[in-house]
Design goal:
alpha/beta; about 400 residues
Amino acid sequence: MARHDEPDPATWWERYGHRLHGEPTGSGERETTVAEDRAADDGREPPRMAYPQRQGGEAGAWFTDPSGLPAVGAEPRRAAGPAHLRSFDPDSLVRARGPVPDRGWRKILHTATLGRIDPGPSAAQLAAQDRLARVRSHLAGTHRVAVTSLKGGVGKTTVTACLGLALAEYRGDRILALDANPDAGTLADRLTGHSDRTVRDLLDDLGAVDSWTAVSRYTSLAGRLQVLASEQDPAAGEAFTRDEYLRVDEALARYFSVMITDSGTGMVHSAMAGTLDVADSLVVVGAPTVDGAGRASKTLDWLVAHGHEELVGDAVVVLVGRAGREIDAPALREHFGGRCRVVVEVPHDPHLATGGRIDQGRLRPATRDAFLELAAAVAEAFPAHVRR
């Protein structure tokens, strides 16, 4: 049978840059393969070999047969450029996965099938993830939040405490709740039960407060929230003036990212003036009652009349408690929504209604969600850049 002329294997390396598989025969001709011999015996055309052909005329080019398949003995085609210069992409090594259901029948189905059936997260889970992302908004510098109301007994101290707990639990920076109530405030009692060191002690030793360790001597801890108690002697409380509040604020701002001030019920006392002078955000607390809502609205009126229109326009109004059947709740929300940035409704919670120490684990889920929404609304106002 006819033989195809083959290149000499002894000179293949010099001519083409890589070895030809197989050893050269003594005659210089290649040995026939079993497939070719069988084809010759049957009178059929022998199978064609994938002889290498040069692709293009450049030196070092790879070789393939006319069908485009790699030639016998050729290496696989590689990505362009040296391997050590190609950038490492960690995301390409991990298969993309969506969020895993964390509640209800979706979680049960996902767990029972070992993830083979994934119904995806519910709308409530996605909303919770979005809320947490807002709570964790980036903050540059120190942000001061003033919590206030003209009326006592509407839950102002409770709102201050739960707002601080929510921010401290889900953020990584330092959060402080400061009781600036001149009438023996109860913020520390509601959070830690410790009020032996107060803002008055801090003021007396302010010159020696030059480190985080020094500051922590005057605060108590509720979870991850730092708490600074107010002066417990009402006779000495009036000594906490505007200038003293500003001195305390300046000292503490070096160590805390968020400072939440429970400002008491008096809008005209001296410490309240200092609180409003440096506040970046305002939380006004009311109740879904005629009296409670009316006082919250009058608080906004007073603030506007005293030059705090910008704070009012960006304020968050919190309505604590259950609205009675005779109260038009949508109209109430519409009233405050037209004056402020956000309205948050906190439902009645038996644990908070006792007035004792707050335990987050005993709050109803709806109450926890409401305070997380409040924390998210406050955090949305955090500046992303340091103000100059």
